[in-house]
Amino acid sequence: MATQTKAEREAFSERLKAALARGRKRISTPTALAEAFNLRWHGRSVTPQAAQKWLTGTAMPAPEKIEVLAQMTGVPVTWLRYGLPERRDTGGPPASEARATRYEKVDNGTVTADELRLLSHLRLMPAARRELVRQLVQELALESEMWTK
Asked: Residue 33 in contact with residue 20, Cβ under 8 Å?
């Protein structure tokens, strides 16, 4: 396998941590990652030390292991490995034909009235609810990053 750059390893590590954080069973330690991985992997066991290297960006797993990690976390292989979105067939019209909504992305960076209203509502919420909203937005943004229509 080709040697990855430090930036590639670190970017993979960030994507892996994001994928692990969004799962039903949150995996946050190298030991938990190794155990969960080994339940799905039929090759030589992965050690917590190897999982630690994946999580810290000092090493990347082989492509076949990345496939298992992607299946394990429910994310596209191309996104986990390269940061590229994968096409998801939603059965609906292509994104280019989808009807625009008032929440559609504004390309020029202008803040819309809806966004200002949303921000004012967010500021009125207690800290715990703001954190829930932040987590939800982070999850939805990650989902958009992983999949294209």
From this structure: yes
Residue 108, CB half-sphere, CA atoms under 13 Å: how many? Answer: 3
Burial of 60 (0-12, 13-18, 19+ CB in 10 A): buried
The Cα 47–Cα 143 span in angstroms is 29
Q: Which residues contact 106 (CB under 8 A, 6 or more apart)?
A: 112
Per-residue pLDDT of the chain (149 residues; tens, 9 = 90+): 568 899 999 999 999 999 998 877 889 899 999 999 999 988 889 999 999 999 999 999 999 999 999 999 999 999 999 998 877 655 544 444 433 443 445 556 788 888 888 888 888 989 998 888 888 887 777 777 776 65
- CATH 1.10.260.40 residue ranges for the chain: 6-84
What single-letter amino acid sits at 133?
A: V
Looking up tokens 């339940």 gives 39
- For 42, the token pair is 């039929």
> What is the CATH topology of the domain spanning 6-84?
434 Repressor (Amino-terminal Domain) (1.10.260)
